[in-house]
Structure formats: structure tokens, C-alpha cells
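Deliverable D5.2: sample structural annotation.
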Amino acid sequence: MTVPHSLLVIDVLDEDAGLADVEDSRGRTYQLPAEWLPDASDGAGYRVTLEGGHVTFTPDPDAARQLRERSKQTLLDFSDEHDGDTPEDRA
């Protein structure tokens, strides 16, 4: 069974610990062993493919841009004001 791929970007690479702090295209953050990620470096992006019980991390130079665009859209969609809770509504 093949699962659609997702994207992953390294936020911080800790070479001393051998760990990469990463964010995926679903907004989750976690740590992975840096040795799993080819050419690991801060800001490097990967396409993650799950197939037949195997996980493959393929370098993807466009992954970081795509995640930034997703984050921008999330911020544009967010509003901390509630209906009837603006100064104009209270006047």
C-alpha cells in the first residue's frame, strides 16, 4: 500500500546530538535522527514517502517554500476576533 507523500523541513540540526528538529506538512514538529536525512542541514526539505512498510526521505528543494506558503495561508485564515467582539460592535 502506498500512502500519499508529505513534506518535511529541518528547523534546527543538532550535529552534536545527531538529531534534527523537523516540521512536517501537517504542522507537527518532532525530532529525527539526522542520519536518516540525506545531506541534512538547517532548512533542508524532504519528500516523505511511505510504501510497503518503508519510509523514504528524498531531498526536495521546494519543500521549505511550500511549507512557508502553507504557514502564511494559515495565518491569513486565522482571526482572534469573534463575531460581536469588535469595538464597533460594542458601540
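Annotation notes: The beta strands are 2-14, 19-24, 29-33, 45-51, 54-59. The helical segments are 63-77, 87-90.
The annotation will be released with the project's public dataset once the embargo ends.
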